[in-house]
Amino acid sequence: MCVCVCFQGECANFVRLIEPWNRTHLYTCGTGAYKPICTFINRGWRAEDYLFRLVPGYVDSGKGKCSYDPNQENVAALINGNLYAGVPVDFMSTDPGIFRTMGSRPAVRSEQYDSKWLNEPVFVHMKQIPDSAEKNDDKLYFFFREKSLDSGAGASPSVLARVGRVCLNDEGGQKSLVNKWTTFLKARLVCSVMGDDGVETFFDELRDVFIQPTQDERNPVVYAVFSTSGSVFKGSAVCVYSMADIRNVFNGPFAHKHGHNYQWTTYTGKIPYPRPGTCPGGTFTPGLKSTKEFSDEAVNFIRSHPLMYHPVYPIHKRPLVVRSGVDYRFTTIAVDQVDAVDGRYEVLFLGTVKFLSESQYGITFFFFFFFLQQQLYASSEEGLTQMSLHRCGVYGKACSDCCLARDPYCAWDGENCSAFTQATKRRSRRQDVKHGDPLRQCRGYIAKVERRLQEKVQFGVEGSSTFLECVPRSPQATIKWLYQREGRRKLLNREGEVLKTPQGVLLKTLTKADAGLYHCLATENNFKHTLARVSLRILDRDIAVALTTPDEEEEASRSHHKNHHQDPAAPTPALLLEPEMRLFQQYCQSYWEQLTAGGNSQADLPKRANRRHTEALKASGE
């Protein structure tokens, strides 16, 4: 008897696959408590029907379609009624592969237990991409990472990123590779950056792939997210690949290895006909109708030589985005094409996960686009989140901030930073994604913002510290603080006395000389503007201490009253302090008003009923 053992929280049906079957139905698969199952869901003819029901009486096996383990990644694509999936096919996840099930074509899979084909792979993405105008040349491209065959010998890296492909009309071999792919090929994806010391750092952990369509359906753009596999250097990168470069590698030399300790070299022997990886009935093999007609030499060659010698390099031979020295890594990517005033732009949405302790796991996000409503959907095991692509309100109500954001979704409409569309005709739309030049785009608006900027009054006590807040809206802005006193401005640069942070500046120990007007000046793209003006006024330390420290006589009186008069109706300590607090507030209000008016004589100060307060005032010379 076989008993299914599940970890806590995993004995449930985790949905891992949802593919559109037709206009009215979806095909979906779940883990089924470590027994994968699939079924159809009726979604109705129209979205307004709000119909989402299981088709009664239909349950199919999910083997070769969906993973057993909810923590195991799997990918799938439903193409012309055939389901293609990259998934482990057993309970222990020891037999992963690329499978084709359902539909009119025969079921096929990758070679079983052959590390030359797949070596502990983790599948990331798959997509049908045509290679030519001939439909028989259509291929399924799949992206994955796997353990390197050379990692056991201590070589680096231990994990490699791969791109593979098979022909959609592959039916397996006649004598060899029966019910197995006879067009299976794979190549390495390289994403690396060269350091200042000349050492090349590779990002080999492929995390996610997004394929951006273009006007030419045969040449989409491939965006891939990577992370480093080592523990010394932690970083993430986004690399972009062209389909032309990928095809050139698959049309190039094959990799060959004589033995386990030999280096990989190019195969220099005779290449059989048809060339391994060629589709039957395609542009180069019009006379062959099926892969079962392939020669034994061609089938045996691809069984032993599935790897291409040359790797695929990204466009411009370098990453598009690199992040290192942070407490997170990239996990997912989605790309949107946006039409702006000065052209079309690609906007990258990157999902991240924070590095936690070894006993904790972060949340991994999977992005889905719904372009009609201009919404981004991010899902995880915690739930589904819907976010608008237009978030123009975060840039504030200044034309300069809207322009400096260089957000193709947003434009200045004369009053606000609002969503931009090509069809919008109301008011004058000001947008400059390419240059982000407020001086050219925001003439007449910059002076208005400067005039509307209010001066904030802030008080500090002599000898203590105070924090002047100024948070720029843009992370690209450079902040400088200017100190103004008696009409003269100078750069605030006091080593050891001032601590500058991204949120503002901390004055560690205040003196009377620190009183004055402080300007927070932001510079971005050669445009300078004032974010905040803070008028700092310093309160005398002795007066502040006197007002906030209780009298000894009052303390003794309170103690005596507490020890000899245990009245249950006696006021609480908070109520006993209320007169002192009210007196402190009155004093502060009078003191601030006198400082503002320039008066500082003792006669102008309110009289005190407290002897210690009066002595403090005399001692300070007020």
From TrEMBL:
Region forming the signal peptide: none
Q: Record's Gene Ontology CC terms? A: extracellular region; plasma membrane
Protein name, UniProt field: Sema domain, immunoglobulin domain (Ig), short basic domain, secreted, (semaphorin) 3Ga
Which SUPFAM superfamilies has this protein been placed in? Immunoglobulin, Plexin repeat, Sema domain
Question: Where does the Ig-like domain lie?
Answer: 462-535
CDD domains given in the database record: Ig_Sema3
The family note in this entry says: Belongs to the semaphorin family.
Where is region (Disordered) located? Answer: 549-571, 600-622
Q: Which InterPro entries does the UniProt record give?
A: Ig-like_dom, Ig-like_dom_sf, Ig-like_fold, Ig_sub, Ig_sub2, PSI, Semap_dom, Semap_dom_sf
The record's section on SMART domains has: IG, IGc2, PSI, Sema
GO MF, any single term: chemorepellent activity
